Structures are given as structure tokens and as C-alpha cells.
Amino acid sequence: MMKKKPLLIVLILVQICLLSGCWSKKELDEISILSGVGIDVGEEKQLRLTMQVILHREMKIESQSGKRGGEEKPTQNVVVEGNSLIDANRNYILQTGRRGYWSHINVLIIGEELAKKGISPILDVLERDQEVRRRTYLLVAKGNAKEILDAETIDLEIIQAFNISDMVKLSESNGKNVMVDLHRYFLRASKNFNNAFMTGIGIIDKGCTNNLELMDTAIFNENKLVGWFDNIETRGLLWVLGEIQSCIIEVQYPLEKGLYVYIDNLRASSSIKPVIRDNTLEKLIVNIASEGKVAESNTEVDLSKGDIIKKLEEDTAKVIEEEVYKAIEKGKELEVDIFTFDEAINRENPKLWKEIEDYWLDIFPSVPVEVNVDMTIRRTGLITKSNE
């Protein structure tokens, strides 16, 4: 009997540990589950938060019937102000009697004016808070964030924040938008002088409906918005970073006819080679390798001929080069290095990097950059000539 007592005690302790698993439970009637949050400059205080709350009753009705209850929306946007993110969060409790639950937030949208003033205090709170998921997407509104969450859109997704999240996920395949979550932003900003970027979003008026659209890329220096990359410059940035997944490249061929061939990029990679002589950085070389296929053609060119394919590869490479040069030129204009050139220099010559690190952003605009693109077209499709 005495031998069984230690085993019994161990079993009791294990059960006690298991029974304590609900100590941190959160009752639905005590919290507001948030799907998205917009942060703008406040009118009376420092910040104005638009908190998109999922209405539990609506969600329950929808889950049981597969439809929304009546014409009611399943979310409600609650606006609160505060002198900090934490202060606004506490004011939300005073206003609603519930605590905002951030663990289910899909998107965090920052207003343009606030982004220009700087978002370091906000990022500090988000980085410390364990409740906020690192996979939450970050976006910058063209205008204010409240308008984005309030916008009437085509009802492809009932909950607006979830709709925006889906837009971000799907847009990466077009090569014109970036997909940035909290984890990626923190990682990039910590390595690159707080030079980082976020997806831009705005409202496009179409008739009676305000449609949301991902547009441009917000560029940050020291956590302040300093400018925007357009879609072409964004794709140039992604070519340099080797983050192009799939995109359509429009190639004018033959030039004299003004007709086009559309190349579907299948895969791409990139590398950066600093050229250093006598402990001096002479230039940076960006090498890009891409493989694609002919997706569409409105020319009468016979794509089965080897010389035609070679010419098409050269013309496609030129298009990619132009996109990359535009991105680099814009980066130099804004005096930001979001291309990871700094990391390449550090890998190549750590000693030189230590010497120029403190003033790299000052000398970067004057450093020559050479872009080389190796384009290979693997497939031309089932037909070799257009039916026109």
C-alpha cells in the first residue's frame, strides 16, 4: 500500500494540472472579438481607433442557417480615441463594457496622416503584446483607415476585414503588391535601418458602390511613411528581393507593330553582388534569373522559331530590367534601402560595412547599380501563331 502512495500522488498532481487548463478562459459576453482595426490621428486625442467588432448573435444565426439574420451586418465599427494604443483600448472598455479581443484580428490598417507622423509607439505595443498575432496583415490607407473599414463593397465576403485579408493573400500572385504581416515588418525593420514597407489600400468609386483596391506600396524610414512605390516600382522591388511568385509580363513585340506578347513568369530568383576594390564599394550588381511561358499573343509572329524566341527572351529581360531600375531610382530618391543591399555588402566585406554602416543611406543614392536579367522561355503553349 505504501508503494502505491507515490504513484497516487503523482496521478493527483497530473489531474490538478489538467484541470487548471481553463484558468485563462474568456467568456463571449465579456469580450468583443475584433476582425480588424484601423488607426488614425485622433480629433481630440492622439489616436483614433476604428475597431471592427464581430457581432456574436449575427454569427450564431449565420452558422445555424448558413445565411445572415435579416439585413443586419455581422460586424459593427466602434470608434474610440486615446493618447496611446493602450489608452484607447481601455476607453473602449468604458464605452462598451467589454474588452477588445485582438487575437482574431486579420488586418491592421494605418491612416496615411498617422503613418507620416510615425508609428513607432504603436509598433512597440504590438511587438510586446502576446495577444496580437504576428500573422496580422499590415496596410496603409490612402486617406484614413476608418473610411476603409466603413466602405461599402461588393459583398464577396461578409466581414470587411476578412475580405481585405483575402485580397492581400490573392494579390501576391500578380507581382504588383506586397504581402506584409507584423512578423515580416518587424524582421525587415530590425535589419534594414528601420527601412520597411507595407501594402497600400484605397477606395475606388464605381457607381454607387465604393470598392476597395490594393494600390501601391508604402515605404517607411525610421517607421515614418516617406513615400510610395507604384505598381511597376513595387514589382521591380520584388524582382530584386527574389519574391516574385507569378506575374504576367507585357512585352511589345515586334516593336514596329505595337502588338504584345504576354509572358507568364513561372519562377524567378535573384542575387546581389557588391563589387569592392581597395576597400571601396564601386558598384552593386543585381542578377535576376527568370523562367516563363507564353500566356497570350496577339501577334502573327511564329513562336516555334528559335530566333523569334531568343528575341522575345531579350525583350522580356529588358522589361524586367526597366522595372528594377525604376524601383532602385525611386529608392535612391527616398534615401531608403529596402532592397537588402546593406546585407549583401556586410556578407561580402564585413570590415567595409562597419566603416560605412552609419552613413550608408547618405552614400547609397550615389552608388551605381547594374542590373542583369537572364530570361528563359520554356513553353509557348499548344499553338505557335495567333489566330488573328
UniProtKB/TrEMBL annotation:
<keyword id="KW-0564">Palmitate</keyword>
<dbReference type="InterPro" id="IPR057336">
    <property type="entry name" value="GerAC_N"/>
</dbReference>
<protein>
    <submittedName>
        <fullName>Ger(X)C family spore germination protein</fullName>
    </submittedName>
</protein>
<dbReference type="GO" id="GO:0009847">
    <property type="term" value="P:spore germination"/>
</dbReference>
<keyword id="KW-0472">Membrane</keyword>
<dbReference type="Pfam" id="PF05504">
    <property type="entry name" value="Spore_GerAC"/>
</dbReference>
<keyword id="KW-0732">Signal</keyword>
<feature type="domain" description="Spore germination GerAC-like C-terminal">
    <location>
        <begin position="216"/>
        <end position="381"/>
    </location>
</feature>
<dbReference type="InterPro" id="IPR008844">
    <property type="entry name" value="Spore_GerAC-like"/>
</dbReference>
<keyword id="KW-0449">Lipoprotein</keyword>
<keyword id="KW-0309">Germination</keyword>
<feature type="domain" description="Spore germination protein N-terminal">
    <location>
        <begin position="25"/>
        <end position="199"/>
    </location>
</feature>
<dbReference type="InterPro" id="IPR038501">
    <property type="entry name" value="Spore_GerAC_C_sf"/>
</dbReference>
<dbReference type="Pfam" id="PF25198">
    <property type="entry name" value="Spore_GerAC_N"/>
</dbReference>
<dbReference type="GO" id="GO:0016020">
    <property type="term" value="C:membrane"/>
</dbReference>
<dbReference type="InterPro" id="IPR046953">
    <property type="entry name" value="Spore_GerAC-like_C"/>
</dbReference>
<comment type="similarity">
    <text>Belongs to the GerABKC lipoprotein family.</text>
</comment>
